[in-house]
Amino acid sequence: MEKALGYFLMSWVDPYLFFLVALGTLAGIYVGAIPGLSVTMAVSILISFTYAWDTNEALALMVGIYMGGVYGGSRTAILLNIPGAPAAIATALDGYPLAKLGEAGRAIGVTTVVSFLGGFVGILALAFGAPLVAEISLMFAPRDYMLLGIMGLLLVASLSGESLLKGVIAGALGILVSMVGLDTMSAQPRLTFGSSALLGGVSYVAVMIGMFGIAEALVQLHTIGAPVVKQRVDRVVPALSTVLRHLPLTLRASAIGVWIGALPGTGGDIAALMAYDHAKKSVKNPSRPFGQGAYEGLVAPEAANNAAVGGAFIPMLTLGIPGDAVTAVIIAALFIHGLRPGPNLMVDTPHLFWFTVGNLTLANFFLLVFGLTGIRLFAKIVEVPKAILLPIVVVLSVVGAYAINNSLTDVYWAVGFGIFGYVLRVYGYQLGPVVLGVILGPIVESNFRRTMIAVRESWTGFLLELVSHPITFVLLIGILLSVLRGTPLWPRLSARLPRPF
Fold this sequence. Notes:
Shape: globular
Strand order of the largest sheet: 1-2
Number of domains: 1
């Protein structure tokens, strides 16, 4: 136990490691706030700079960037309705309406505190529940990931606004876009129309930048002469009563984040969307209607996506399986430094686990400090005249799209989807379901096909798979209940269900 505590405190007592974690967290916040500059990209670039470093130094910097970057996407989501990262899409749904009401400072303060709390829950799960959670995540088969993806697609109902039909159409368009490119199983071109530029598919980050960046700038042109809303930033740190009021939702959303984060190949974006949907269904009296500035709509996704950070490290450190794209890059970095993530990691290099837990904890505290400073400066962005701000938004969107793969093709996609998103907005379609379809479409398709291969393409075998495994059956029941909740049958059905108390 004493050795574990010593490993945990290594970065706390070493000034240089302490500085690297602080620097990484600060850089991650600002990288995460810029659309197109993903945390995965930042960590990937760091590998080339840190391969000659000591392992502890490289890991301290990467962990700081990861923790800060996941949180940073909320800043531009709230201020400009442009999520800095896919995990902040749900945050923009209520964050931007709050900025339009002049409450950007308070909104950022609340997201900072709940992100800190969510991150802390994820770290506790990593520290004390890693073996158990990793064992459960190993039980998930392709059929379970398929059902998780379907469950995520059902969130279209929460993101559709006033018209469910328009939300379903938008989600279907997103799934259609996700199918462009080479088939992942057979490598056959799909929907490429003979163009080699389409063989690589469409980057969902380019879609997100176009839909939420360029489209938003075009929509804002309609109100370019409107008076600027002055932001109230007199009280940045939220009151203790506010934090306590939202604490149950924070803990529930954090649990969702840990669970989703620990499943290989998922990540904070899916966790945030599921937590937002959970908030809409479970909160009876929100501060405002969801989509119009409900603080509950900020609390749930921000707690979940930061809790997913600790969750993503669970399969990485215990099994050598990446929880998301960033931990996949960190695994590559560990291999470069001669380490072998997996079941024997804690035997061969016992310090690494607790050293990582210590770095995450320290980075989480830095997130709180850096997150609550500079809010007044950030909030001033909303007060910049739109004639100046909108061209800057478009330029940053173009730069961010180019930075994805250093390719003009992604810029063309971003501009094209920006115009397309503008047309959808004009006709009352929400853009969230489109991005949701682009992200989750490949997850559902690939795992459905893996399941069909496992049962030798037998529909009877496929249906038996759905009801003969406990985890799969529970997920299937969850999907059926989610569908029923949206039908007129639900009030009558729920009235007949037995009450626990």
